[in-house]
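Q: Two folds, back to back.
A: First:
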Amino acid sequence: MGVLTGPLPLIPPKGVPGSQQKKSPSVVALGGGHGLAASLSALRLLTSELTAIVTVADDGGSSGRLRDEYGVLPPGDLRMALSALCDDTDWGRTWRDVMQHRFEAGSAKGGSLDNHAMGNLLIVTLWELLGDTVAGLKWAGALLGARGQVLPMSSVPLTIEGKTRVELPDGGHELRSVRGQAKCAVAGKLEEVRLLPEAAPACTEALTAIELADWVILGPGSWYTSVLPHLLLPELRRALGDTAAKRCLTMNLDVETKETSGMTAADHLDVLRRYAPEFTVDVVLADPAAVQDLKAFEKAAAMIGAEVVLGRVGASRRRPVHDPLLLAAAYHDIFGNS
């Protein structure tokens, strides 16, 4: 087990002597939603060779409506990843705010734009104009001056399905099916989770990025709906197992969420091992406040081949949010010690 300390080294500006002495590591970050945005906000401080691979199973809100009406990939998590990578200039930040702007109902409620995120509409527009999902995301990234590329995990929309154990009036239990990311996220502890279609194709560019990476970062994020799906897609799971890259699993700051109720930090690792027993990890990064039983956690980590690294990476707020600078410092130490 390691404990992280030390300062955060930012990427030297171009043209500064010594900036080319050591090549930036090529890093691939996988996840979705706020968890992936957190890791990207940290990793962008460490490398210019950054790829985000994003879940495409969202079926709620603006993304769900666009997915149903136009048959496209749900754009919401892709939009959040792009926004997290925006250029740190007035131009980049302004376009980030435009992408994240959400229309709210005015006096005439029920309008066609209600609750849509502007960035979702822009991304779908680019997809329709270009006829190419990856190219559309590149154009959106160029508008933001994104420090990295954003790719979908699959070239087709995915659906998450699982079963939850429901207590019956007689004290017994039965398993009930839950379908769709929005419902799975609030269903409680899930069992028999799977992706549909089961043999969905992975994004070719995502597979290439994983193959060429120096580091692969999985998590943080909603465990069953943002982290686990990357190990349920057959082609992506094989790529993650075959890559020569080092693998780092980033734990959540709060292990007691609606979809992981009653689970410990060690239970989270057991879930990954149960669904992808061949998948191994080099490092598991966790905030010590999120690990109740360190010995059990280290034992579970060892079962997937990982060393546990503890580091305080949470922001000093009531909500469990990763601090980008602290998380970047933790990743820097991990990369440097590999």
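A: Second:
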Amino acid sequence: MINSDNVKKIDVVRYFLQGRHQQPQRESGLAFSPTNIALCKYWGKRDIELNLPATSSLSVSLPDKGAMTELRLHNENRDYIILNGTPVDSESVFAKRTSQFLDLFRQDTQWYLHINIKMNIPVAAGLASSACGFASLVSALNDFFDWQLATRDLSILARLGSGSATRSFWSGFVEWHAGSRHDGMDSYAEPLNVEWPSLCVGILPISNAEKPISSRDAMMRTTNSSILYANWPKKVLQDMAIFKQAMKVKNFALLGGTAESNALTMHATMLSSWPPICYFLPETIEMMHQVWRLRHEGLQLYFTEDAGPNLKLLFQDEDTSSVKEHFPTVEVIRVFD
């Protein structure tokens, strides 16, 4: 427990790194973290500084989709970032956010990093790129410095960079506990001991363009101005219980329907914000209506949508051919392969 009434990110980092190496212990650090798709969304914070969520959330990780990060020392007085083979402008939001996060770990020692990130998902398009990015960065630091931190501790550290990153350390279903402590030490993620071999996620690309407003800014505007947001915690509490029941009895319609309802409720809070926030594109709406039409015709198909225009389809393996027929551009991922 951190003995302070006003806990900062640096306090959390110092707590975990006390007595641990302050300099790299090997030539490089390397780590992969999967992206995660929230079924029960994280939307709203009880503590902005520590990225402590207003509610718990639940996600499913996508195997082989995410970020691979390699770290080496850089002999200049700044970090140097390469993303998918292209150098990142040091003045960009991406570079500044990454370096500011690394500043938390530099503490009394000065070192800078050559950071090589390879992502096989679009960046800033509502596919949790920041989640897997910060999770892989923290894991690579743990490898590079040989901190030997437990995965739960890495989950807490990654949360300081991106809330959803706390869920990107495991495969399968993952729950992020909201916690109640002011220092956030009880707000971490852990995997659920549930497997669903037939579960598939279909990534339906609509736009890879960077979204007009970041998730962080959209979340703040929603919590500050949406009249509907007051009911969001109640919705999450209800949905979390339904999700766990659906997983227990393997009721796919219950799982898919609850995920779709949860996503649409989150977007309703955004639409009722001021100024309104709308991530839907015309193609997003068109695809939603197609899912609803197909479900009416008997296909067990659902969708979820994060803070971006792209839909993620939820269906079972037996319906893969039908889904591909109606959505030729979909990328099918078997979650538990």
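Q: And?
A: The radius of gyration is 20 Å.
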